[in-house]
Amino acid sequence: MLESLYLNLGQHDALSDAEKALLAGAMTFERSFAVGQDIVASGSRPTYSTLILDGLAARYKVLENGGRQFTSLQVPGDFVDLHAFLLKTMDHGIVALSPCHVIFADHSRLRAITEEAPHLTRLLWLDTLVDGAIHREWIVAMGRRSKTSHLAHLLCELFVRLQVVQRTSDMTFHLPLSQAEMADVLGLSVVHMNRVIGALRRVGVVAWANHTVTILDWHRLQEIAEFDPTYLSMMREPR
Amino acid sequence: MLESLYLNLGQHDALSDAEKALLAGAMTFERSFAVGQDIVASGSRPTYSTLILDGLAARYKVLENGGRQFTSLQVPGDFVDLHAFLLKTMDHGIVALSPCHVIFADHSRLRAITEEAPHLTRLLWLDTLVDGAIHREWIVAMGRRSKTSHLAHLLCELFVRLQVVQRTSDMTFHLPLSQAEMADVLGLSVVHMNRVIGALRRVGVVAWANHTVTILDWHRLQEIAEFDPTYLSMMREPR
DNA sequence: AGTACACTCTAACAAATGTTAATGCCGAAG
DNA sequence: CTTCGGCATTAACATTTGTTAGAGTGTACT
Question: Which of A228, B12, B116, B239 counts the most CB atoms within 10 A of its CB?
């Protein structure tokens, strides 16, 4: 059941059976969330961290004028709020973008892991570091890429991340976001988001309909995005 | 000499003398960097992490078209590349924005800390988590704030962070960046950066000359920025 | 079958932001 | 003292992006 988590953590370094058991032992109960529901509320102080077993979720902040910005997309195998284990207070919310099935890991047991399992601790730490690396890539995309390139980069990133946890088939993956939600990812108006998607479609590198993205020309998409997956740390090496 | 580091880590939770000694024991040699020099090169695989003792530095990425985007600003007491301890390969560069005096912490000794000092490990982990929280705040600023608000937010953040490590005097702090460098922070053209700075000056909330920023109206600046320091985790509590 | 609703897409126009170029200021180097 | 070069500033114009409005489309519900 924790296959996605093992795939996610295991992509960076070998995960022993004992470590898998420790992770499994940290888990408590499961729960499902409907689309649009908050999985974690901004301002809350969770005592457990939430692992996505299935579905797509996002971190977001809302400004006074009502504007919403997603700061990350979370796929199966991601701890959406592992950082709250040490940050304590959520400074943002986490919402389900598709029906989400999750499982909760108790902070007291995570703490026990940090006391007794240094290597596993480093892997969990690493998981949050990759999070940060993704954030940096998003900052670069928002600041200095063309909007088309930004979108292309996002699709490359999602494809690769979903591939790791075996949520792609061929060059296709499911992307349940509406264009309004995509606009909240890229920081655009809905109208302009529509223009940018249209532009990328017109180039012919992706097909995108019914919430399903098909990459028609991976090489060219990667070129448009200047996508270099180094930041995802997918090399398996001692950590 | 590591006062800034102790202030930085110690703002989140109590740091024992034993832990301070462990940190001091991880340090090896010191070095100075001139303005514009790379402190860490993109693509390198450092075997030590760099702590800023004095000066201002920034993480950055460069795109094929020559555009540069800063992804963070680093102040004294910050480990600029603590993440490389586990990420291994630098996917971005780090440059000195003012003359920087730094000290290097050996990865092998950091690893020893993770094996033997769980609480200190959690504090170092936390340090990288705050990094991530700042990244998220930057993403929100780039995506959904007005440029004036973004700039105001950046000044609020810098002021608070510099205050923690005692690099402010009254409502004033040193900001060595040129407007071209500021543009690479906010993701703007130099001309527009100049307009935005002019706008914030005209409002009368900050004075800014000779690389020195004076906050004239903290309350209103915070209002313009919608600045809420929660994300910096400055509450001292058990971690 | 008909209605309501959410979503995509387009058009027309307004506002924000980028580009190019020129001016002035000031400190470093000769 | 003079010259040079980097930086801040402004203007004029081009391009990108936002806003408002509306038309089309498909699906769930009655």
Answer: B12
